[in-house]
């Protein structure tokens, strides 16, 4: 992924435009695209800031964020529910269409794992920290040579 232009370059482009040059001319002068100079100038005039905008998706947003409680409740109520069944349940209850893979990623981020049983069936369970599970146990004995 490309990096944002430096603050120094941004300041020089704005100074060039403020000195009376066109935005496209400033872009040519500093070897950046004309659209960068145009967008930077618009951002400068609108917000007064030269810092680049935040990149990527906002945290916590997404299609399923509003249905987090419902999804987790379904999985905790029925840990052996399959992702297609959960997607169908979400469609029936909330009229939200989502792929099973998206639900699986959502549950993994929420701390659930999928454990298969010997018979091939499985169930989702919350992850737990290994340190918390070993609090009462003693450290393993070192091998004597």
In summary, what is this structure?
The protein is mainly alpha-helical and 145 residues long. It has helices spanning 7-18, 23-29, 34-47, 68-77, 83-94, 100-109, 130-133; strands spanning 112-116, 122-126.
Query: How are the strands of the largest sheet arranged?
Result: 1-2
Sheet-strand content, in percent, reads: 5-15%
Helical content band? 40-55%
- The 3D shape can be described as rod-shaped
Uncertain residue ranges: 129-141
CATH third-level topology of the largest domain: Arc Repressor Mutant, subunit A
CATH superfamily of the largest domain: Winged helix-like DNA-binding domain superfamily/Winged helix DNA-binding domain
**Class per helix and strand makeup:** mainly alpha
Q: How many strands appear in the DSSP assignment?
A: 2
Distance between the termini: 52 Å
User: Main sheet, how many strands, which sense, barrel?
Assistant: 2 strands, antiparallel
CATH architecture heading of the largest domain: Orthogonal Bundle
CATH class of the largest domain: Mainly Alpha
As for the number of domains, it is: 2
**Order of helix and strand elements from N to C terminus:** HHHHHHEEH
What gyration radius follows from the Cα positions, in whole Å? 27 Å
Q: On the 0-100 scale, what is the average pLDDT?
A: 82
Tally of individual helices: 7
